[in-house]
# Entry
Amino acid sequence: MAKFEILARCSTTRARVSRLTLAHGATMLPTFMPVATQGAIKGLTSQQVESLGITLILNNTYHLNLRPGTAVLVEAGGAHKFQGFRKRALSFESPFTGEPTMLTPEESISIQHAIGADIIMQLDDVVPSLTPDRARVEEAMERSVRWLDRCIAHHNQSGKQDTQNLFAIVQGGLDLELRDRCVTQMIERKDQVAGFAVGGLSGGEEKDVFWRVIDRCTQKLPEDRPRYSMGIGFAEDLLVCVALGIDMADCVFPTRTARFGIALTHHGPLNLRLAKYAKDFGPIDPKCPCPTCTEGTSRAMLNHIITKETTAAQAVTIHNITFQAQLMGGARDAIMNGTFPSYLRSFFANYFGDVGYPEWCINALRSVGIDLLEGSDIKVVPGSGAKWE
Amino acid sequence: MSLSFSTASSARFGPRTGTAKMLRAGTSICINTPGLMVGTSRGVIQHLGRDQHARAPLRWITVPFESFLENSPPTPTLQLGFNPLHTFLGFNPNQHLLALTLRDPSDANETPSNGNDYISASTSRGIKKITPTQWRIYVHASAPDVVVSLPDIPWTPPPFSQKRITKSIERTATWLANLLAPAPQPLNILVHMAGGISDPARRAFTDSLTETLHGREAEAVHPHKCIDDGVTGYVFDMVPLRMAMDASPDEARDDQEETVTLVKASLMSAQPTKLRVVNSAASPHEILCLIRDVGIDMFDAKWAQDAAQFGVALDFVFPVPNAVTKGKQRDLGHNLYRTQYAHDFSPFSDSVPNCPCGACAPVAPQTVISHSAVDAHAPPAAIAPPCTRAYLHHLLQTHEMSAHSMLVMHNLAVVDAFFASVRGVLERGEDFSAHVNRFAAEYDETLAVMDEGRIMWKEVDIARGKGRLARERAAAEVED
# Structure
């Protein structure tokens, strides 16, 4: 099983820095994992991804099983070799809620063995987070626990436990009591799993509900296992989750939004399609270390090619993945140096100073001892407060 | 800033090697000929990111300007600093020669007529008219290394009347003279050889370039005695020639021979040692023919870039090795959309050993961005395995853009190696013509593999490309 060491803890929040050592090397947490649905980060080659300092990517079991299929992956010697990716990879299950995946827990584990990912995910029963039927949510939660047992049994028979690490996925919708029961049952299986994911969120639920579910799970999950919140990608969501004790997150957001011309910055997203950027000869962010910015690709040039040439998607994807990695790298440094609270304050002031702090972020961070409003005259906005241009 | 061309050959026609040399403030770029030019779309090499430029054989890059007319003034003309066009587009002034044309020479779409003092250009915001005076301003503001003067090529449906062809050669010469007018910064100018598919018109055009000017006409191009003196080289666009020939079918005519005849007609009275450039040759077969029979120096690789777009990994060499395969002609490449490649873990090319491209010889990044002080240092760079046909097949089938990045790097490398071999054969004094004939016998010139790739690309694009959901909705509504 993967080695998991905690290197530092924030003395105010529940944030921590840790090292997760997998078969293909070590990854420092907290981290954000870009998504390579089909075995490639959209638009980028594996060499490009590697040069960005990305050490963990996420492949999709469901998609790789459809194409190229496990036979090809086994012949190739696993997804790492197939993609030419030399870092760590994680595979996860179908996000297609409501659609029959026709997979058994055993099949799902077998496919993930063929993919050869360093981290594999249990098959879980996902219901949309806004499902009003509590009985259905409860049934899905209980089924996910039973499927975890079958995944553990199948994984342990395979002899792959040394190279591949199984993560459990906590379900239970938005109901804190169901989440509690799920966490409790899954912790009983702790010795058989390498980490815990919080699933079933990011389905359009209220942000003020979302963080409370994360908060409840991270409070109960064991200290000595990595915690992964699935489908989280906005900068403010990531930092709030880190403060609540999350170590890993993934989302298609930074890569998908790049293809539509949205570049992420510390002052909020830029919509490069807007006419105001057509004569802006500066880079997306002059301080950004990504190749797109250091080579001086201007906002004006990106405005000229975005959504028309694939190289624009490439350039903005490179930038956005780097932005996410910098954001999380900055969090690691701050936690190590004991300055995470001020890191959070300065991120939020830069990012939301002009439009106001989302109320849910204020609430979430207050729960772990940080008051963003202290000594600040920035206003507070209700709702998700997500920034958009 | 000056571009010079030298060739050892003094013959007017026949295969030749040479060197195009660009001198610009402290740097010189040498391009051996026959050699490769790479085309751009909206100012970028399609599918090739700036960080991948180093992994492709880029020296001469052709930049059609028309897309920039969408903004007024065109954005590159507002870029500050030295080498504004290089800066704006992200090319390296020490390595890349940028040649500016108004229009994309491979674009065969119908465009409204040109006028006596404007040319119609195509942009994503419709047709824009541009005058020779504007062109001159834009060229001086963006400072390319080389500029192609405005040609009056009719883009209305052929055939064309004699009157239209006469207008075409007159305007092309006048617009060239306009660009030659004295300026603080002299330009390196190439001229499109006008005259369409009329042999006499082509000769007449060249004569108009080389006739000695007098009076006000001479003053306008001072210090040149004739407008040809101000020209560094000649450009031949194949697309309008092919279209005009297709519009006047002639059973007795061999289009390939006719093309050679037409190009030679333009060069009959031209200075034989100037650079000769061909755009949009259809195949390596046509390229070899134009090298052998005319002595063309530079070719774009539109066909190879198209092959990358349509999933074809090129796999051919020149000269053909002695052990020639008998029987069926070979394809110039592999259509990696074909399911036969799903389990094929070999590199793209059999014929090209040690292909140096970014897909066949990936290198671990020299530097990796560090995101925090606690990050583990990357292990020492190891040699990454070549990209396989199976992985490329998978990327193509799943509509992943990186498939085309890798194919562009590969195909340009194969074409670059092809030109290097052509130069080698010429320098060693081997029987070039015999090699060309063997090549023609060995490889399929019709590029059937590309037609097949184009169809399969379209199928995947319809199934998974941009706008897929809208198409599916539309299809469902039709069914209802």
In short: Residues 258-375 of chain A form one domain. Chain A touches chain B through 66 residues (CB under 8 Å). Confidence is low (pLDDT under 50) at residues 94-99 of chain A.
